[in-house]
Amino acid sequence: MNDSLPGRTGRLGVGAVIRSTIRGDRDDPTTLYSYLGGGALLADDTDYLNLGYWQDGPGSYRAAGDALAAELARFAGFAERSARRAVKTIVDVGFGFGEQDVLWARRFGLTIVGLNVTPPQIARAAARVAGEGLADRIRYVRASGTAIPVASEAVDGVLALESAFHFRLRDDFFREAFRILKPGGVLATADIVALQPLAGWSPTDLVRRLLVGGGRRFWHIPAENLYGPEEYRARLEAAGFQGVAVRSIGSATFPGIRALLQAPATLTRFPRRERPIVRLAGEAFWLPYRAGWVDYVLVRAVKPKPVRAAKSRKAGERAPSPRSAPRPDGA
Ligand SMILES: C[S@@+](CC[C@H](N)C(=O)[O-])C[C@H]1O[C@@H](n2cnc3c(N)ncnc32)[C@H](O)[C@@H]1O
Q1: Ligand 1 mean position to 118 CA, how many Å?
Q2: Domains, the chain, ranges and CATH?
Q3: Is pLDDT at 252 greater than 80 in this prediction?
Q4: CA distance linking residue 290 with residue 253, whole number of Å
C-alpha cells in the first residue's frame, strides 16, 4: 500500500548521517528527515518514524508504532470508541507520515489538524489520508509547533508523538499548546528526556557527552530541550498547565528499537555499506538508556478551567436557584 504513495526512497546514506551530525544546530529537522527518506524506512508496511511500544510483544514495527500511538491517546485520556462520530478535535504536532492520525481518527473518534515542517512527509501523509477516505476528519498544515496557526481555545487536545524534543524550543510549544487548548483540554507528548546534564570530565562523562551530545546533534535537538522529568513538569506548570503526569516507558521502547535495528530483516533493507550505521543506531538508542542518561516518557498536562466558573458552579450546587429549589411543601 505504501508504495502507491508519493515520495518513497527509504535510504539513509553514510554521507548524509555525517553531514547531519556535523551541521547539528545549524540545520532544522527538515534536513534530517529528508535524509531519512520518503517513508517505509524500517518496514514495508509502515511509515512510522518512532521507537515503537514493545511492551506486549507487538510482533512487528507497524504494530509497535500503532501500540505507541494508542498508548499516548489513552494516556491523554481519550477513550477508544466507534469512529463513526468524531467527538473531540486535536492538533497533532510533528505528524511524520500521518500513520498515527489514521489510527486516532478510526479508533479514538478524533478529528485532527496535523502540523509538520517537512514538506515530503506532508505530501505523503495527505495522500494516505485521502486514500483512507479520512480527508474530512484529518487536515494537514505546514507549520511549526512553536507557532501554531489555530485560534485560541479551539481544541480539546494537543498531541506530539515523539517530536517535541525537536522544537525550538519545547517551551514555545508548551505556550502555544496552552493557548489553543480549551479550558480542560489536554496536552500529551511521547518524548525523550535527559536524566543527566552533559557536563563533567570523567571518562564516563566524556562517553555520555559523546553519545548523548552526538545523538542530540544528529537528531537536531536544541541543547535547551535537554532536561529531565521534574524540569519538564516545572516548565509545563510555568506555562499554566496543571495535573501534570509523567510516566516512564523507556523499558518498552529502547530495547525494542535496538532489536529491530539489529534484526537481519531490517538490516537487509539498507545497502551493505550502510548496515553498520543502522546497527550502531540501535546501540546509540540503547546505551544511553541502559546507562541511565536518557529516558522515554509519556507526559500529560491539563489546561485548568477558569476558577471563577468552577467557583460559581460550586456555589450554584450549594444554593440552588429559587425556581429549581424544592418547595417546602414538597410540591
Ligand atoms: C521522530 S518523527 C515522529 C513522526 C511521527 N509522529 C511518528 O511517530 O511516526 C518527528 C516529526 O516531527 C516533525 N517536526 C520536527 N520539528 C517540528 C516542528 N518545529 N514543528 C512541527 N513538526 C516538527 C518532523 O518533521 C517529524 O515529522
Answers
A1: 8
A2: 2-305 (3.40.50.150)
A3: yes
A4: 12
